[in-house]
Amino acid sequence: MTATAVSVPRSVVLDGSVELGKDLLGGKAWGIVRMRRAGLPVPPAFALPVPECAHYHQAGRCLDDGAWAAVREGMAELERATGKRFGDPSAPLLVSVRSGAAVSMPGMMDTVLDLGITDEVERALAAATGDPDFARDTHARFCAQFGRIVLGADIDPAAPAASAAQVRAAVEEDCGDTVPGDPWEQLRRAICAVFESWGSRRAVAYRKHWGISDLGGTAVTVQAMVFGNLGENSGTGVLFTRDPLTGAPEPYGEWLPGGQGEDVVSGTHAVLSLADLARDLPDVHQQLVDVGRRLEAEHGDLQDVEFTVEQGRLYLLQTRAAKRSPAAAVRTAVELVEEGVITPTMALGRVTPEQVASVLRPCLAPGATDDAELLASGEPACPGVAGGIAVSDPDEADALAAEGQDVVLVRPTTSPEDVAGMIAARAVVTELGGATSHAAVVTRALGRPSVVGVGPDTVAAWLGREVTVDASSGRVYAGRLRTEEVAVDSDPHLVQLLAWARDTAPVTVTTGDTAADVVDLDAAGVGLDPERPPADDELDAALAGAVAARGAVLNTATGAAAALRAGVTTVVALPSQPELVLLMRFLAAPRTDD
Questions:
Q1: How far apart (Å, rounded) are the C-alpha atoms in residues 397 and 389?
Q2: Which parts of the sequence belong to the PEP-utilising enzyme mobile domain (predicted)?
Q3: pLDDT tens digit sequence for 490-533
């Protein structure tokens, strides 16, 4: 890891005056700046920019004197903005410490909430709010999360009435380390844990899958806490400005009264819908929907907005481009053009070849479920159909997939540690969680069919059996069911995307040998061995002077780039290569004139 050459402050107060971009601030902090610039209700925050991750590692995996001075300066700004003081029971300031890389990696790195609480602060919060249960719950939550995230303790979820002392004892018994009673030591160790999580197994696996560089690192955002667990009319939730499953242009999300943000994304709590928020807190709901419209218009894309309501007051914690299903990616891109928000060229850049291929994957054939055994029903999290052997262990899923077997990962719920198994699986099913849980967000990013919330103690009976996941309906069936092909003309959004792609792509795709002198890469044996992808010089030699070409390797980033370098203008599609997928592949490839 190397530090960027750009000179940036070692800490940045996240107000509307900040000019640094997402590459330096990280996505989370950059979103906060834009929301605060727009005058939206966002708790004050500061960030240690992305280069500080490199500084941390270069300093021997610790915060050097300059970094710690920057943290102190940032905390002083939070104290001025809130009128509270960190570690002072008379006016306690609690903060969250969160990761935030330049490229969104949802759930892959660490977060610690409620930091700064101590036994004395707990007593002060109980007295100030008149709610001892809130103070106890907040302290116990912090000890459990700090123990798991920072100290690496493997502890069971705390009982609803657990005290901080009980949680601390469980942490110490498991890992031999203690949760610090000094708020500043809590803060130092939490920041270090966030920087360390950049190199965690789950984060590395996620970056490898998406081709994200391991260089750079993550920023750290420190933000004043607001409390969704503070009495009545409080809670937390996630708003999507459009449906991330289908792309339908209507608000979508989940709401958890009396909770904090990690309760929703962990998938361990039963959540409600935004309709419940509209019923119970109609003014807050309307404000949230209005804010969502503003954020989508400003960012020009479907937004994922994390929010907290504290005693009837709405606060926004984060906004980012939402992870969406492949079908939603296609529909959203097309409809944003129709609404005049983006151009057709921008729309083509918003959809990947893999997403188009996923939308065109086979669906269940008519009548396939008539005699099928229905194993469970849940909530669709990412549409699609896939089948395989049910496996509960992510490492086993990874190993079996490497042997060429189709597997379906079935879990009570997923955590960031499961991401390698989720990447390997054809589909994912969880017993708990909703449409904004970790499993739902990550599978949408991966384009994996997934069903969540099928019910406790459900999936163990499936292990070792073949199952089919129909994630469009939220059902799981025994056995492998019949499927049928999906045509582009079955979806008007795909039809429009194809028209734009034909007008824009640097090649023409045909389906027959109508072009003269077609170079057949398959016949030449170039690119047929998946264990040995062809080198650039091998492809360049095979395609030298070609105007038209055919071959499996042309539906890869490497093959498409080589064809463009060679001056290929016509691609003859194989039966397994839909025209739209090939066109999108060539649109995504770097061009020689770029």
A1: 9
A2: 405-474
A3: 999 999 999 999 999 999 999 876 556 899 898 888 877 666 77
* pTM of this structure: 0.80
Residue 257's nearest CA partner among 284, 283, 231, 292 is: 231
- DSSP 8-state secondary structure symbol assigned to residue 46: E
For the chain, give percent helix, strand, coil, nearest 5.
40, 20, 40
Burial of 466 from C-beta contacts in 10 A (0-12 / 13-18 / 19+)? middle
Residue pair 272/192 in contact (Cβ under 8 Å)? The answer is: no
φ, ψ of residue 278 to 5 degrees: the values are: -65, -35
**Burial of 123 from C-beta contacts in 10 A (0-12 / 13-18 / 19+):** middle
Q: Say how far apart CA 114 and CA 136 lie, in whole Å.
A: 12
Q: Which fold has domain 227-324?
A: D-amino Acid Aminotransferase; Chain A, domain 1 (3.30.470)
Q: Judge whether 217 and 1 are in contact, CB under 8 Å.
A: yes
What is the pLDDT averaged over residues 151-156?
90
Q: Which two tokens stand for residue 559?
A: 């093959």
CATH architecture group of domain 363-484: 3-Layer(bba) Sandwich (3.50)
Kindly list the distances between the CA atom of residue 471 and the CA atoms of 20, 245, 379, 383, 429, in Å, as whole numbers in the listed order.
Answer: 41, 10, 8, 5, 9
380: part of which helix (H) or strand (E)? Answer: strand 379-382
Pick the range with the lowest mean pLDDT from 271-275, 432-436, 464-468, 481-485: 432-436
Is it true that 1-118+181-225 and 363-484 share their CATH fold? no
Please give the distance of CA 354 from its chain centroid, rounded to a whole number.
17
H/E stretch holding 148: helix 132-149
Q: Is 549 helix (H, G, I), strand (E, B) or coil?
A: strand
CATH architecture of the domain with range 1-118+181-225 = 2-Layer Sandwich (3.30)
User: Which residue has tokens 């469009």?
Assistant: 472
Q: What is the pLDDT of residues 61-78, one digit of tens each?
A: 999 999 999 999 999 999
> What confidence score (pLDDT) does residue 435 get?
73
Break the chain into its structural domains and give their ranges: 1-118+181-225, 227-324, 326-360+487-503, 363-484, 505-588
Q: Which residue has the tokens 């970790």?
A: 438
Could you tell me the maximum CA-CA distance found in the chain, to the nearest angstrom?
Answer: 84
Q: Can you say whether residue 261 is alpha, beta or left, with left for phi > 0 and alpha for psi between -120 and 50 degrees? A: alpha
